[in-house]
Each structure stands twice: as structure tokens, then as C-alpha cells.
Fold this sequence. Notes:
- The first copy, chain A, has helices at residues 8-13, 16-36, 42-54, 59-69, 72-84, 97-133, 153-178, 195-204, 220-247, 275-289, 291-296, 307-336, 341-348, 357-366, 371-388, 392-397, 400-403, 408-413, 418-421, 424-432; strands spanning 138-143, 146-152, 180-181, 208-209, 254-255, 338-339.
- In chain A, α9 runs parallel beside α12 (307-336) and α14 (357-366) runs antiparallel to α15.
- The first copy, chain A, is mainly alpha-helical and 435 residues long.
- Chains A, B, C, D: One of its GO terms (molecular function) is (S)-2-(5-amino-1-(5-phospho-D-ribosyl)imidazole-4-carboxamido) succinate lyase (fumarate-forming) activity.
Amino acid sequence: MIPRYSRPEMVSVWSQETKFRIWFEIEAHACDALAEIGVIPKEAAKTIWEKGGAAQFDVDKIDEIERVTKHDVIAFLTHLAEFVGPDSRFIHQGMTSSDVLDTCFNVQLVRATDILLADMDALLEALKRRAFEHKDTVTIGRSHGIHAEPTTFGVKLALAYAEFDRCRDRLRAAREEVATCAISGAVGTFANIDPRVEEHVAKALGLKPEPVSTQVIPRDRHAMYFATLGVIASSIERLATEIRHLQRTEVLEAEEYFSPGQKGSSAMPHKRNPVLTENLTGLARMVRSFAMPAMENVALWHERDISHSSVERYIGPDATVTLDFALARLTGVIDKLLVYPERMDRNLNQFKGLVHSQRVLLALTQAGVSREDAYRLVQRNAMKVWEHGADFLTELLGDAEVTAALSEAEIREKFDIGYHTKHVDTIFRRVFGKA
Amino acid sequence: MIPRYSRPEMVSVWSQETKFRIWFEIEAHACDALAEIGVIPKEAAKTIWEKGGAAQFDVDKIDEIERVTKHDVIAFLTHLAEFVGPDSRFIHQGMTSSDVLDTCFNVQLVRATDILLADMDALLEALKRRAFEHKDTVTIGRSHGIHAEPTTFGVKLALAYAEFDRCRDRLRAAREEVATCAISGAVGTFANIDPRVEEHVAKALGLKPEPVSTQVIPRDRHAMYFATLGVIASSIERLATEIRHLQRTEVLEAEEYFSPGQKGSSAMPHKRNPVLTENLTGLARMVRSFAMPAMENVALWHERDISHSSVERYIGPDATVTLDFALARLTGVIDKLLVYPERMDRNLNQFKGLVHSQRVLLALTQAGVSREDAYRLVQRNAMKVWEHGADFLTELLGDAEVTAALSEAEIREKFDIGYHTKHVDTIFRRVFGKA
Amino acid sequence: MIPRYSRPEMVSVWSQETKFRIWFEIEAHACDALAEIGVIPKEAAKTIWEKGGAAQFDVDKIDEIERVTKHDVIAFLTHLAEFVGPDSRFIHQGMTSSDVLDTCFNVQLVRATDILLADMDALLEALKRRAFEHKDTVTIGRSHGIHAEPTTFGVKLALAYAEFDRCRDRLRAAREEVATCAISGAVGTFANIDPRVEEHVAKALGLKPEPVSTQVIPRDRHAMYFATLGVIASSIERLATEIRHLQRTEVLEAEEYFSPGQKGSSAMPHKRNPVLTENLTGLARMVRSFAMPAMENVALWHERDISHSSVERYIGPDATVTLDFALARLTGVIDKLLVYPERMDRNLNQFKGLVHSQRVLLALTQAGVSREDAYRLVQRNAMKVWEHGADFLTELLGDAEVTAALSEAEIREKFDIGYHTKHVDTIFRRVFGKA
Amino acid sequence: MIPRYSRPEMVSVWSQETKFRIWFEIEAHACDALAEIGVIPKEAAKTIWEKGGAAQFDVDKIDEIERVTKHDVIAFLTHLAEFVGPDSRFIHQGMTSSDVLDTCFNVQLVRATDILLADMDALLEALKRRAFEHKDTVTIGRSHGIHAEPTTFGVKLALAYAEFDRCRDRLRAAREEVATCAISGAVGTFANIDPRVEEHVAKALGLKPEPVSTQVIPRDRHAMYFATLGVIASSIERLATEIRHLQRTEVLEAEEYFSPGQKGSSAMPHKRNPVLTENLTGLARMVRSFAMPAMENVALWHERDISHSSVERYIGPDATVTLDFALARLTGVIDKLLVYPERMDRNLNQFKGLVHSQRVLLALTQAGVSREDAYRLVQRNAMKVWEHGADFLTELLGDAEVTAALSEAEIREKFDIGYHTKHVDTIFRRVFGKA
């Protein structure tokens, strides 16, 4: 967890305090169920809730006990016993550490995902607002970094909206994957604990019982979870890269907001750099990389080994904290993005008329020229524009083979920008349900 | 694509012949729609279907043309024109190469996924059959590779069933992700092609229209697809690792089927090695690794660059062909797995009675001993079994502190295997809906 | 192995024919040593070389035998015996399959690396030639995609040269890593084979004996090998990305060579796309991804398991064939790169004089202005250029706070391009040993 | 950085305090050189060393300034100026932030690597000691987890020694990769700073000047660095996996030291789990995963973008701190490993005599039996041992086809363990230079 890439709400999900509080709740809910089915006294369950609920757990003390026992759950239970008193012997009856650890981890992941879902909503809101704002802002579309044909800046943002809308769905599915609870004992057989305890705790925590666990909740769930976060990070990288391209000096169609007092370079006072989106690119690399150890965590030995644990101590917090930060940063970038329609217009017309080459090509084929010939005719005139700065329309009108197939009026008609934007409303309706 | 890890049906999805056939169908379906809305003559669309449908495309010839044009779709269209004749000029009207390439790639992925889904069904069937066969075959559960408490071999297989059942759901979701079609033109604006063409082609091919595309179908979809395959591969690795462990000489509770004539080693004629599951472990590494370049493919520049293409030429076939092979191989392993219940029983009793340590611990706490004292009492007797081969029951009965809390009958009662299997039916009902 | 990304020489390293030929040589060299130390008759060794050396191994037949034995080395030995006759019983004495397989794999990797080293030399040669050609071609240096200060195109290429020169060193080190031979028997103890056999075979094949092997040559060597290839691929990606940027429409300072007859787009005849460097970007992703399974291959169980084998059947050929192709493609791109110095000059001057901002900043501090004030002064004038297209020099001369510290002559003197290129010779001497 | 997987010395390399101290030293050394060549007054350089050297930098204050300037180096320089006074305007003359940042990062990596090298020495020492201790401790070698032929536990450890010895060499090479310094200005042209400054600073810090830098030190160096750490982590995983296998209940040939007071399980007091080596397995996954973003960092845009920076804020500390911890933990495990020779002996003889199958096979071929027949004869007797617990020697002596080729004495002679260990001294001499 890197402080500069962390936001407090998400950080708090992963604090020691939060963790021990969740551990306590799992144990206490389990006691309720154990009391209900008569394994422990109801009075004990009540005492545990009261005394444990009021306790301020001392993280340092627990750590100290762990240094002797080399076992974190035992250390916590020992500490908890100090608050609860003699009834503490009814806690953790028939449970195994992983019942607590794994259920807690899933509670944390679910809480983290709820924050991420809210982040996503905010990002989608910003994208939608700016998309409608620039629905008709014409700009050149580019393939291979080369001018292709016109589109609108709104369509670019609509595309991002649709992509993150899919990411929201994926995030929801990922949340579903890890929203399970296991209180199934040492090897998952419920030998020492009735399955009804698991059902009760699951319900109390808003989770579903894991249909069959071993000592641990199966890690294919978590692999899917972190892989999903990696995909979302990759979408962040895509949009960040788009903005970085738009801001580069020669393009300059959009810019990250540059705050008063900000300095772009210690050496070059003229600089305004897309540092936020570059930063997002790096953060995306990190979140993506966590998918790999998460997948390697799946193949635990037999009913469990503990190799997954250290991995999760890194990637549980790091992946969610970083993604939370990245989504919020991206939302800010989109929200305040400086957009330069004039510059878009100037870039679009850099090679006069060249972007209409396909329309001319199609018109020629419609007029009976073979596809191969049409391509050759258009390409030879296009290359003059490209290489010598000629005007595409002028060149076409001066090419006898072209004018043999198309009249001047027909050719001129192909140079209309509106032609390219006529379906923008269709696209918006598909993405936003309205145009 | 490694021949020894390939099965013909999946390989054929990725053949050049299949690809060109799909390209043709996309173009021909598009012509139908173009004819319907009056852009090209209906007769032309009919001719295209007839002549193109009857054509035997010559892969070598297309390659030859590509060597000149350096463009594969143009090469194909040139070849197609030879069959179709003059009406060929109506083909590909207003479309861009990616309309064909991306829609085709998705058709191939969907077909591949349908094969994978069938593979998954077969695997699930095998797991279910063997799970019920061994529902009551008691075996030791292990955490950290160390004996923990008894479970049944059927529960192990039920766990695998539940895991692959989740994988089936994920695979279905992944199929959904990539089952889209884009016929949206050079930068996705439908400038030269009516959106109705896309709708028609999508429907004809069993796909959904991509709500908003650029020149390409957004690659977050494919990242999600290959990440999902990586997760499934990781589950294969888990089950393969379980079997490898069970087959190791000192354990030998199960073995891969060893066919007549098979040789385990060129040097050591006594060897019977778990080579199939070791092989699956390696294959899983490969399929998993493909998730990474798939995620890096998302951040294409602007409306597209072509960096994703080479990656997909590798991982499209390699991931699906390898996973298909791996699922089938795993199904065979499960189907014919030699299971040795006697050996399971012998291993379970290797440390006489030690697996009942938790029950004794719980009984002591129930009898009023503090958790810490109970743990200490049980641990000191357990260590004698572990270190000197003592009998756990005898040691307990000879420990005055233990017998002060529990009677001999109470202690003996804790050494019952049935205690551990009493909830197996519950687990089976959760997983299979019946027990 | 994707045919379109493969070159014949490297492909042949990995052919079945090559593999069986190397297997034979390993066995025959071993026979020489066995004969020398009296384990088998010298006559037998001679016969084996003669009959085996003349044999045309039939790949299909060997495959057929393997389908029964499920063991490739046994299948080969059975086939070889058909040629050699009764003396074939002296082949493979005391050896284990991995002695042959692993030594062969390393021979193939060494041969592959020799090709890669030659590729690297060709790339370095091209970079050097173009670097000197454009040593003095002034161009804008960019950080964050934003104009920074001038450099020369030659310096850019010198940087690439230095990077690939490091890559050559790394490749040599990687070759060293895998240039070992193991003929050490079933678990590496030489129980059935004298260590002198290993020494002889190693020397005959240009390898070093593996100091201690198990059944296999330790896979940390191969992990290092493939990780190195991944790093080299990343350097290819860097240079490819640079060129893609330079070719984008708004920059257009350099272009991949566009051959006669080439078509950039099926739809837009005006397009000239950096498809080769985009392709290299994708290939780099693949080669990089292979590092991961190679690292996972290290942790084999005990003296070996065979999980690494399937991984290596993919990445052995795929990594080296792809990298060979990529290096050759990159060499071609550099060799024929179209460079546009005029456009470089035009871009450099897009914001008149702004690139000199640092010099003015430094002059102000030298003149006694505090760093903070100097930064503020320069930034406020720079922003006018950036935002309103003003001329930087004019703005500075009109700023009283600036002229209070620096005379007009002093300010004008800061606007000299030569100032930025005065150490280019130093850099070239560092990189190439001459300027 | 996870506190429980961190050691203080390595953590301090990455503290804010250390970083700012190194920044100061880079600036101050640069001032020395600038004074020497007459750019700034010598007195100023002296003052800067004196006042800056005595200063206690306030991390919080620097952070506060950065929140305004959004630039960390400027924030530091502003803070430094408070201590140095007016002469502070001579600091950072002609330098760019990256000169400081990148050189500092490399200083930190070099210091981190020196710690890792010391860790490695300690690990090698422990491996060597235990290897000699168990040079003659016979144990079964296993391939595929299946008994193969005898080896010694010392040979296993010698193998690990040789592997980590290679890792030490790789670590040294990795240190060499990143031990460079760049003080080359905004785009690496030395426009505003004489190359002699770089040479001076490099020498003062024990680094080499980077032959050609852009704004940044090329990231292929760091990619190679982190890839190397990933390979080393994979070797840690290998040895950890070996120990985990040896400790599993059915094998139990070695055990991690179990300290007094330690608890293996909250539920099962009998457990002694290989938790340290399982933990190392997880840590290895993490360190390995960092290689991927490090490689993605190479392809920065033009003369630099800042996407690498966030990645390095994670992996710089995380990779080195985790690897330091892992190496130390592994050293402790090896140092205190409980080894059970009696159990090794018992396991070795589990299938009586079966491990001698190859010797019998070879004797049969030497006696004139064809390889195929010999294999068949040995395999059929071996399978009886495997499947029915027969005694291999007895079976062979009762097989007429076997005794037709070999006398009883000849057969009995093959059942000698000493045969397998006769070359252990050779191996030790190869690895340790002595036996």
C-alpha cells in the first residue's frame, strides 16, 4: 500500500482494527448459532457479544502474543479472552482458523468491491456528462495513430462509457464470486460444527454459504476476482493512453487540468505534462500483475496449504486500494479534462480532404469502376496529398480517370463532414438509452 | 499449436479454411442486408452467396496475393472476386477490414467456447460419477501436507465438481463477452454503412451487435475471455496437483491408469509416473500465461492499432486448443483413475488415533478445562505419537490431567471415524442437489 | 510457431528431424566415451556412428512407436535399433531419457541463441549506420509526449544502439546459462554411468558439464534464459513504440518504408500505417509473457517432474522463433526507415522558442534571481506561448522583471540550437568509441 | 511492504529519510563538480555540504510543499533552501529532476543488492554446512514423486548450493546493470550541464556514468534487475517445495524446526506444519510477479514518460524487501532443519529392492539380452513388487528367463546401495571444490 496512491476509506477496510473487528463478529455470530442449537449456553453468547463488542482490541498486544504462538487467530482469541472472561472458552468451538480468516477476507473483499462499485458509478457519471457535452464535437478518428475518418469526441467518450459499464458488470460478478462464507471446520466436513452455524453466520454477514470448502474457501474464486480487477485496470490504461495521446504537443486536442501553483518540470517551466494519466498507466500495470500470483494461488495442496496467505496480504490491499485510487483519479481527469474543439478541427483538416478518401472510393465502385481500379485511383491522388501537401479535392478533379466516372458535383458532395456523424445519435441511444 | 496437445475439432475452428469461410459468410450476410436496404442489387447478393458458397478458397493463392498487398482481407477479396465475377464489386461496401476480422475472431471464439463447454460437461459428468462412487470412501484430509482430520474421497471430488461447475458458469459468461459483431466501418461511426447491416449480420451469426465499436471490437472483452481461461487452467492445475500428490510413492492412494505397453522410464522399469497430471500442470502454466498479453492488448491507440493482432494469432488458437486438450485429458484421468481405499485406510491410521486430537481438545474445553490448558494437554500427548510412534489413545488414558477431566469412556468415544463423515450427505446435497 | 512470424533457419533448429539428429549424436558421443572406458566394445561405438549416422530417421514411425510406449526416447531408441542392428543394445547404457532430452534442449537453445546473436549484430549495424547518418539531425526531445528540449535523431538511435548492445551482452550471458550438458543418470548420481562420459559428450557438443544435476538440468537456468528474452523483447517494444509515435499523422518525423503495391487499408486508400512496429509491439508482448511459465518451471518436485516439458514445447520454439523474426523485422524497419528532417524542424519550432525556457531560467538564477522567482518569471511567459501562440522571445523581452535581470543580448543568446547539440560527439564516443 | 515480511536494514534503504539524504548527496556532489569547472562558486559548494549535511530534513514539510507544487524534487529543493540559505540557488544547476530521482533509485537498488548478496552468502554457508553434514545420508531420489534410485541428502543440498551460487552470480550481474548514474539534463544532451559533473557524481557514489541517457536511465536495466530477482525467487520456491514434500506426513524425512510454544493449528494440537516454506512459496509468487510490470516499464514514450514511476514505488521496495526476508527465512529453515535419516532409510526400502531395477536391466543387456526383452523381464517382476508387495530380489531369482541370463550371485550383487553413492565425492568436488 503506497500512501500516495491510497484513499482512506479503502485503506480502513484493510486495517488491523477492521480485521480484528470482523474476526470478532464472525466468532460472535457463530456463538449465536451454537447457542441456538444448544452447543453452548445462550448466556455465554450474549456475554461474548457484550464484552467483546465493547472491547478495544490492542493490535500491538495481539502481535506480541503471535510472536510466541506463531499463530494469528490463536493470538487474537487469547487477547479476546481477556475481555470476555471465562465464557471465552465457548468461542471458536469446532471451528478452525481458516473459518475465521477466509470468511473475514471475503467480507473485506466485498466491502472493498462496494467502494469500487461506487467509484465506477462516479466514473460512469463523469463519462456520460462529458460524452453528451461533446456529442457533436467533431474530431478525427485514428487507426494506427494515422488519421482515418472523422468521428466525434462524444463517441470516444461513449465508447469509454460502454467499456466501463461492462467493467461494472464484471465487478458485480467478481463480488458475487467472493461473497461466500465457510464455517466448516478443519477439513470442511463439519465434523465438529453443525452446517447451520455456517448458514447463520453467512446470512448475518450478507454472504452465501460456500457449498463445499476444504479447510479454506476455494481460491479459484479469488483468482477470478483479481483477474477481473486486472481487466478493469487494463481498461483504465486504455483511456489513460488515449488522453496521453491527445495531450501530446503535436496533437493537443485535450489536456489534463493544470492547477494553479503546479509545476510541470523542475528544469523546463513551459511544461504541462499528462502526469495523471501516465501515473494511471503505471498503476494499471501493477493491478494487472496481481492476477498472476492470484491464479498461482489456486493449486493449494490437498485440503489447503498456506502459500496463498502471504500473496493475499500483498494483493488484497494493494489491488483494491490501487484500483480505488486509480478509478477516482481517472474520474477527476475526465471530470476536469480540458477539451480543445478548435484544435481538433485544425488537426482534422491537416491533410486537406484526405479523410474523405473512402467515400470517393465507394462512389467510384458504385459508378461501375472495379474495386481494384478504384483503390488505385484514390491511392495515387491521396499519396500526393500525403507527400507533397496537395489538396485532395483539387487532385481528384484533375484526374481524368476519376472524372470519367464521377462528375465534379458528385465528387464535391463526398467532402461533407456531416456524412460521418449522422449515426452518432444511434450510437448514443445504444449506449445511454437516449441521444 | 503443439500437435501432441491438440484435438482435431478445436484445431479446425482455427484453420485457414474455416477462417476464410467465416469471412465469406460475414461478407455475404452483409450483402443481404445491403441489398435489403437498397445499397446493392438483390441479384448481386444472391450471386455472391451462390458463387462464393460453392467456391473452394485456395489458401496458398490468398497468401500469394497478400505478399504483394501486405493486407490479408484485400487478398481474400481479390481471390473471392475470381469466383464471384463482376458482382464482386458489391462486396465489402462501406466496410473496413476489421469488421470482417473482428467479427470472424469472435465467431471462432464462440465456436471454441462451445467445444470447451462440452468438454466441461464431460469432465463434470466424470467427477460426479466418481464422487458418488467414493462418497463414503474414508481418507485422511490434509492441510499443509500434514494429516489433519478424516474426510471422504467423494468429498474431494465433490469439491472439484463444485469448482468446475463455477468454471462452467465463468466460461458461459466469457462466451457472452465475446459473442458480439461489429460492422461499423473505419472508425465505428457507420458513416459508410447502415447500422442495420450490423444488426442483420449479428443475428445471422448468433451474435449481438457491439453497442459502440471503434475500428475494432473493444479488447477488454477478449482480455476478460482469456483471463477466464487462465482461471480455469488454474483449477485444472489444482486437481492435477491433488492427483500427483495422491500417486507419490509414500502416499499411493490413487494412480493414473497405466496402460498395457506403457513404459514409465527408459532406465527404471519399475516406474509408474503421474505423467498426465504433470503434463496438465505444465499446460495450465501456458494457458494462464496468455492472460497477460491479452490484458496488454486492451490499451490500443485511439480507434485502434494492430498490435493486438499478432498476440491473438498465438493465443486465440493456443489458449483454446490447449484448454480443450487439457480438459479432455483431465476427464480421462478422472474417468479411469485407480483408487486404493485400502491404502487410504492404512495412511489414515499411520499415527494411531492422532487425527482425533481436535475432538479430545473440544471435549476437554466442554468439560471445563480452559482452551489454553486443553491445547497444552492434547499437544503434549500428540507430540509423543508424532515423535516416538506412541498410541494416542493409550497416552491420553495415561495422562492424569486428562483423565481428571474426562472418563475413559468419554475419551474412547472420541475415536470414532463416523463422527467425521456424518455431514457428507449435506455436502453432496449442496453440490449435486442430491446425496 | 506462427508461420508468418517465423524464419526458416530458426524453425529448422526446432524441427523433429534436427531433434532426432541431436539425440543420435548425444547417444553416439556417449558410446565413444563408454567404449574408451571399456564399458562397451569400441567396435560397437564405431558401428553406431556409421549406421546411425547414415540413417534417415522416420518421424512418423517414431511417433507411431511412441503411441504404444508413451515414451519418446524409448520410441526413438527402438527406431534407431532398426538401423544399427544388434549393437544397438550398447546404446543408452546407464543413461536416462532426460540425459538425452535435456542436453538436446540445451543444444537447440545454444544454436537458437547463436542465430539471435547474429540477428542482434545486424540490428546493431543498422542502428549504428543510421545513427551516424543522423548524428546532427536536430529534433525535439520529448518527455511525457510534450516538447522538452532539442536533441538529435542520431542521439535517439545511439540510445537504441546502447540498449541493444546491452541486450547482446545479456543474450551472451543467457547462452552461457544454458550451454550445459548432463549425462548423470536417473537421479544425477552417475550410479550407472561414469562422469567421464558426461565430460566427453559435453566437450564434443561445445557445452560444459552440469556440475550437479538431478534427473534433469536445473530449470533456473532456463528461467533466466527466457526472462532475458523477455527483457530483449521489451527493448524491441520500446524502439517500436518510438517509431510508431514518430509516424503518427501529427508528428510524421519518420515513417516505415512503404513498398510499391502495399495497401494500408481496405477502406481508406490514403493510409500509410506503422504496421511493422505495431506488429513488433504485439510480438514483444508474447515473448515477454513466456518468462512467466519459464519461472514457474523451476520448482520441479524432488529430482524432477515432467511439468516443465509441455511448457518448453511451446516456449522453446515460440520464444526464439518469434524473437528471431522480431529482431530481423526491426532491423529492416531501421534500415529502410524514412526520416524527415524538415518535419522535425517544423515540429521543433511549433511553439516558437519555448524549448529554450530552461536556459532562460538558469541565466536568471546565475544573474542572482532566486530559483523560485526565476521559475515563476519563466513560467508566466511560457504559458502565454502555450496558450495564446505568443512568441517566447518577444514575451520575455517585454517582461520588466526579466529584463531587470538580463540584458536583451543575454536573452537572445539563449535561443541558440547549437547550444543543445554541443555534447553529441561526447555521447557518440561513449556509445560507439568514436564520433 | 508488509511489516511481517520485512527486515529493518532493507526497509531503511527505502525510507523517505534515506531517499532525501541520497538526493542531497547527489546535489552536493554535483555542486562540487560544478564548482570545480567554474560554474558555481567553490564557497557555495562548501556551504551546501555543510548546511545541507547538518540538516534534519522534515518529511512532512516536504510532503506539504509537494501538495502545492505537485512535484517532489522541487518540494525537496525548496525545503533544502531553507537550510542552505542564499547559496541554494546554485543547487540543481542545469540538472533535471530525473537526474536526481534515477540516480537515487539506482543507489538504493545497489544498496539493496548488497544486502541481498550478504543474504545469499549466509544461505550458501548454511547449505554448504548441512550438505557436508549429510554427504553420506542415503535417501531415495524421486522423479515424478515416485521412487527412482538412491542418492544422498547431501547431494540434494549440493544441488541447492550450486543453484544459489548461480543466483549469486546473477545477482552480481543485476547489480552491475543498475549501478549507473545519469546527470545529463532534460533530454540527456548535457545541454545545460557538463558531462564531467556526471562523471564526478558517479565516481563519488560508486556508480558508472550511463553512456547515453534520455531524461531517464533506460529501463531495460531495471527490467533485467527485477527479472533476475524473479528467477531467484523461483529457486527459493523450488527448495521450499522440496522441504514441504519432505515434511509431509507420509514422507517425514525432514521437518522445519518447531519452536517451544509454537502452535501448528488452532483446532488440531497434533499439527506441525511446514508453514515457513509454504510462506516462502507465496513470497516467491509475489517477487516473480514483479518482473512483468518491470518489463512493461521499458517502453517509455520518447525521451521518457512517468508511467514507470508508480510501478517502481511498489516494486522497488516490495521486491527487495520481500526477497531479503525470504532469503533470510530460507537460511533459517536450512540452518535448523530437522533431518531424519532413519525415516529416509525406511522410505527407501518401502518397496524392497525395487530401486535397483535399472541395474538389473543393464546387467541383462550386458549379458546379451536385447534391451526390449530386458525391459520386459524387469518390468514384469517390478510390477509384482509394486502391486502385491512382493520382494524384488526373490521375484527375480524365481524368474527362469532372468536366471537364464544372470547367476544368483550376479543378481544379488546388484542390490548394493554403495553402488549409487560412489560418485558423491566427484559431485561435491565439482560444487564445493572439495569433498
